[in-house]
């Protein structure tokens, strides 16, 4: 249940960012969008990284305790957002946060748009993990 709860919280927050927050941010001119993105990204990291790790660890523990292979699959899916973030998303984050970046540039807008697509992958992974977790809670979780 902990794995499912953490995955669902992660997925809900990630979906909100992709469907509501980032599109609203991108209505702003590029400088304002980039200035708003930076603190939002930092605060979201403080919430989402622990949720992914909690879901991963509790899902693996559930599997080790007799839950189905599906629980392990869900745990690995949500857990995969962590290395994906470090290896794929972080380079874009660092480019957006460069101290000498022209926040009004076309390149900055393109980086923010790229970030949204990359974040969408995290959203999809967490949604699939959440669906599997909820399905397993429905009675199929323990063999």
Automatic annotation (TrEMBL):
Cleaved signal peptide residues: none
TM ranges: 43-64, 69-90
Assigned keywords, A-Z: Membrane, Transmembrane, Transmembrane helix
InterPro entries given in the database record: Anthrone_oxy
Protein name according to UniProt: DUF1772 domain-containing protein
The species this protein was found in: Cupriavidus yeoncheonensis
Phylogenetic classification of the source organism: Bacteria, Pseudomonadati, Pseudomonadota, Betaproteobacteria, Burkholderiales
């Amino acid at each position: 249940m902990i794995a499912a709860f953490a995955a669902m919280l992660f997925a809900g927050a990630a979906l909100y960012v992709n469907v509501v927050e980032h599109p609203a941010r991108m209505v702003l001119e590029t400088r304002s969008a980039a200035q708003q993105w930076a603190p939002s990204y930092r605060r979201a990291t403080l919430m989402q990284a622990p949720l992914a790790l909690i879901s991963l660890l509790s899902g693996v523990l559930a599997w080790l305790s007799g839950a189905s292979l599906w629980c392990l699959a869900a745990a690995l899916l949500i857990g995969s957002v962590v290395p994906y973030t470090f290896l794929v998303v972080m380079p874009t984050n660092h480019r957006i946060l460069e101290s000498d970046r022209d926040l009004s540039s076309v390149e900055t807008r393109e980086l923010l748009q790229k970030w949204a697509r990359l974040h969408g992958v995290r959203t999809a992974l967490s949604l699939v993990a959440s669906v599997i977790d909820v399905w397993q809670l429905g009675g199929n979780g323990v063999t």
